Amino acid sequence: MLKQPSELPTIARRIAAGELLLTGASDDMVMKELRLSKVTVRRYRKLVESGGLDALKLMGVGGRESALGADGYLQIAAVLQESARVYGFESDGWTNARVRLLIERKFGVRFSRVYVWQLVTNLGLGHVLTKSRR
Predict the structure, then answer these.
(1) Which pairs count as long-range contacts for 70-77, CB under 8 Å and 24+ apart, including other chains?
(2) Is 64 inside any structural domain?
(3) pLDDT (average), residues 89-105
(4) What is the C-alpha separation between 31 and 26, in angstroms, rounded?
(5) Residue 47's domain spans which residues?
(6) pTM, full prediction
(7) In this predicted model, what pLDDT tens digit does every residue of 47-65 receive, in sequence order?
(8) Domain count of the chain?
């Protein structure tokens, strides 16, 4: 299904920074090693000192909440397991355009082609998308 927050590159790098800080690495070393800003490393250090790695894990990942929510993602994942014909398309395969249209019809929101590809990939279902434009 959806990638867990700990699997996201941003979180993985944050945790790596926390682990380095816990082993006694200097702020400068963490900055250089992970290409983080001084402000970011200082913020991570304060969090690690007060709450350990769990404090870093609890930080948000930025961006706004998805218009779909967890239930919407589950619905899309279930739909993609079925034939596109079931949802009114003229053949079985799922394309990015079809998924975009389905989301618009079902949830009333429009997503970009890139976001839909990312969403389907994060669901672990990128393999169901065909290359067809239709």
Answers:
(1) 70/2, 72/107, 73/1, 73/2, 73/119, 73/123, 74/1, 75/106, 76/102, 76/103, 76/119, 76/120, 76/123, 77/1, 77/123, 77/125
(2) no
(3) 95
(4) 9
(5) 5-57
(6) 0.55
(7) 999 988 888 877 766 656 6
(8) 2
